[in-house]
Amino acid sequence: MVSLSSGSAGSIAALFLAFALGFLATTLWLRFRLAHSEAQTALREAEIERLRDEIWQARESEERYRGLIEGQNDLILRRDPNDRIVYANPAFLEAAGSDEPVTGRCFSLKSIHTGEVLLTADGARSFDQEIETGRGTRWISWLETMVREPDGRMLRQSVGRDITERRRSEEALAGAQRKAEAASAAKSRFLATVSHELRTPLSGITGMADLLLDTGLTPEQATYARAVKSSGESLLFLIDEILDFSKIESGKLELVQENFDLTALVEGVAELLAPRAQGKGIEIASFIAPRTPRLLRGDLARLRQILLNLAGNAVKFTTQGGVGITVSISAEGRTVFKVTDTGEGISTNRQARIFEEFEHGEGTGAGAGLGLAISRRLAEMMGGSLGVDSAPGEGATFTADIPLVAVKGEPQPQRCFPAGSRALVVARSPFEAPYLCEKLRELGFDVDQAVDASHGLAVLAASPAPLLLVADAAIGEEAARALAGRATEAGTTLRIMLLSPFERRQFGPPAAFGFDSYLVKPIRERSLRSRLVEPIALAPSGNSRSLDAKRTVGHSPFRVLLAEDDEVNALLATRLLEREGAEVDRHHDGLSALEAAVSAMEGKGPAYNFALLDIRMPGLDGHEVARRIRKEEARLRHPPLRLVALTANALQEDRAMALAAGFDVFLVKPVVREDLSRLFAPDTAKSKVA
Ligand code: ADP
Known about the structure:
Blueprint: H1 2-70, E1 75-79, E2 85-88, H2 90-96, E3 110-114, E4 118-119, E5 125-133, E6 136-148, E7 154-162, H3 164-213, H4 219-249, E8 258-261, H5 262-279, E9 283-288, E10 295-298, H6 300-316, E11 322-329, E12 335-341, H7 348-353, H8 371-381, E13 385-390, E14 396-402, E15 405-406, E16 421-426, H9 432-442, E17 445-450, H10 453-462, E18 468-472, H11 477-490, E19 494-499, H12 501-507, E20 517-520, H13 525-533, E21 558-563, H14 567-579, E22 582-587, H15 590-601, E23 610-614, H16 622-636, E24 642-647, H17 652-661, E25 665-668, H18 673-680
Parallel strand pairs: 9-11, 16-17, 16-18, 18-19, 19-20, 21-22, 21-23, 23-24, 24-25
Antiparallel strand pairs: 1-2, 1-7, 3-5, 4-5, 5-6, 6-7, 8-10, 10-15, 11-12, 12-14, 13-14
Helix pairs in contact: 3-4, 3-14, 4-8, 5-6, 6-8, 10-11, 15-16
The structure holds adenosine-5'-diphosphate.
């Protein structure tokens, strides 16, 4: 205690101090804890606030998203793997038209038609579906994908867009297209039928006019008959043009590929138009440039049609001068046909329009204004082009530039005369004379051209005599005689006169004027060569190309079986066949013709050399008669009778159908004498006449 008492004061003090310190520490600790817990509370509150904010934001975004989905016109729904609907938006509910809730059920829209299901690379499915809704039928285009829920479940989500309006306009468009196609097919059929119906009576008109012209008519009557014939022919030409145009329009026109001779094509066109040109006092001539391949591959008939149209127009719109047709080869190897005239020309603003259909100049006379439109389309179908270069009063040049394949292995033309051989051409002509000079240069001549007799005489006087003199009869009888005389004196060995067929009749034999021979304009290359190269001989004065020469058809009578229901056409065919020396057995219908053919085969009646069968007949038509005749021949082991189809349908498919039915030859009405007389020629006995 002493120690206690002695040290008690200190101990108490120490104890007190310890207590005080402890108290202080406790207070401090408590204060610290309090402060800490206050801070913690504040922090928690902030956190709560933040989380509240987040929840609020999430809710707002969810609301917005839901609003977006629910405000959609698209149908949206999700199904679980058991096909139960987990979610459907209001658009879907509206389409479903159901008052019952659909969630949790296996519910489907009423489908009328479901289109083809397409699968995309990412596994989505899409298809169109026509559904029945409370507001009528609708077309929905669905896109289905698999989506994963936050809880890991896989749901099938379908989003459907209403495409009813689009489908309806597509259907309307398709309907309109179908109608247009049907109308176009009906138009083509109509044109083909009308053209057929027109051709039959027209062939009667032209054919009868032809027969009439061969009877003893007064000059006045002959003029009228010729007018009937030429009007009929113009009408026929027009029908062909309209038919061609409709074929091109409907894409039915098919080009053929065949080998053909360019010279024959071009010269043939010039010759065909020569009477018309010469009748108007203008010339027509053709020239094929050196190095142009002569044997080509292409659609000969359609090329001829283009050239005839261009050259025909050129003749029509030219009153003085003439028309020249040239062919050359371009640097790209295309065949370039040019038809040049010295006519009225075409103004620049008309130049583009003339290639449009039904476009023709005012007061230009007949013509549907289809020729150039058809020609341009044909040239384009051949991979080429057709254009014009012209100015009013300066003539026109139409150029058809066409890629045609040259057939290999054609012989190259040879020069026939040694270099330095001279020729003098005396002619005033815009095309024939320069073309002739070029042709002579190709043959090896040095050529002088004089435009009239005095110019020609001056050339003769100024230089040594040419080997060859060519003088156009158009310079006049006296001038020609004088030139020939002077040239003969000077030592010219060959004198040729150029004549039109009309002048040929007027002038008489060229020898009377001091000439060795003559060439008919437009000059054919082959004739020129033969006049120059072959021994010089005076040509016979008779017209070797006369169509009036009567054909003999052998000793026994040539018998023809004719089946034709139309009286006029039957009479026409009978007369034409009789002119060829044939005996005609005419039948009014297919059945009676078939019976006649079969009894001839069985030896019960006279044999026929060929049968001419109209395609369109009441009862058995021509095709059926042909098929049955072929069948009977096979049965009786009888050699085939030559069957000739007679039709007013000029379409390619008609031709093919006739050949398939067993016909050998296909003739299009109006039947002309040349077509029929070809049937009697032995070399065409097996060939297919167009
Ligand atoms: P069509 O000759 O039937 O009227 P085309 O289509 O062949 O129809 O010609 C259309 C028009 O182009 C002609 O009417 C004429 O006005 C003009 N034309 C054609 N070729 C020539 C030409 N060589 N010279 C002047 N005009 C021409």
